[in-house]
Amino acid sequence: MLELKLEGGRRWLGDGSVQIPIIEFGECRGRYQGSVFLLASGPSAGEFPLARYADWPVIAMNGSIVRCADQKITPFFYICDDPGFVRDRPDLAGLGARSATHLAMSLNCFQALHRHDPTLLPQRTNVFLLERVNRRHGMAVLSDRSYAWSIRHDPDLICGFSLLRRKANRIGFSRDMSKGYFGGRTIPYAATQLACHLGFDQAFIVGMDLNKSIGRFYETGAAALPSSLDEDFEDYILPSFRIVAEKVTPRYPLRLFNLSQGSRLPASVVPKVEPTQLDALLEAEMAATDGKRLRARS
To answer: I need a labelling partner for 212 at 20 to 30 A (CA). Which of 10, 110, 234, 296 fits?
Structure first.
């Protein structure tokens, strides 16, 4: 089984026969600017003309990689932190791991993928390890309340704190993925934190419908994997995105937009934009940057 190892100050994944170097998130923090698309898996993602925006970077996640493949787009990042998804849909996890420029997974996802196909990861470069806040490897795990209190003065980790309500201490936002990320019970939330970490100024979320009854765009019927969206929405998903609206966007250079008009998230939390508004925002950006889409900061 793949294990996380440390040698000479560098981390890598290994099982005795292979060594897969890990790139630390600190090496890419604030490196980019401009706009990025975050591709989720709601039905509206299957209707979005992704190929029209192929020149902009895309962060794909879980099964949304199908849309990238259909539209012949190479994702800038592919992320996954659900080992159940890797076990149930190794074909899609493998597709994302093979095709993306950068790959970021949790350790248990890397392990599940390596068990399915031991040849895939050793061929990869640009591999990053996703680690939850307060669950980073080699560091002590605190109670949720103690952890929230411990980071109260850290400008990179924005977290609620409550002596009375336990769930409030689990909700937050990370501006620095090397310090971990908050799960928020939905993978687009991890992608939002990654976009912020990388330095992007605008993030457009595609397919974030958050409606369990209409499922995912790439699966139907008995093939559909179970979802806990309804159970998690009020307690975790909505409060997490509220933190972005109330404590991140007003203070830091990240604007977040929702391209799903039927999304369960209210527009007061994540503004919804129509296609014409999207084009206007991108045209304004290109006019200010001589037409460059993906730009590294100088």
So the answer is: 110
Closest CA to 206 of 100, 95, 51: 51
**Three-state SS for 9?**
coil
- Per residue in 203-218, pLDDT (tens digit) is 999 999 998 767 787 7
Name the architecture of domain 11-143+172-288: Alpha-Beta Complex (3.90)
Entry pTM: 0.95
Q: Which residues, other chains included, contact 231 with Cβ-Cβ below 8 Å and sequence gap of 6+?
A: none
| Neighbour tally for 140: CB within 10 Å | 7
Angle of the 90-99 helix axis to the 107-116 helix axis, nearest 10: 100
pLDDT at 298: 59
Q: Which residues of the chain have pLDDT under 50?
A: none
Tell me the per-residue pLDDT of 145-177, one tens digit each, with 9 for 90 and over: 999 999 999 999 999 888 877 889 999 999 999
3-class SS at 60? Answer: strand
Cα distance between residue 249 and residue 162, in whole Å: 23
**Phi/psi of residue 263, each to 5°?**
-60, 145
C-alpha triplet 129, 133, 138: angle, nearest 5°:
65
Task: Spell out the domain ranges in the chain.
Answer: 11-143+172-288
204: nearest Cα among 64, 89, 53, 81: 53
Handedness of CA 155, 158, 162, 163 (dihedral sign): negative
**Residue 256 CB neighbours (<10 A):** 20
The predicted structure's pLDDT at residue 220? 60
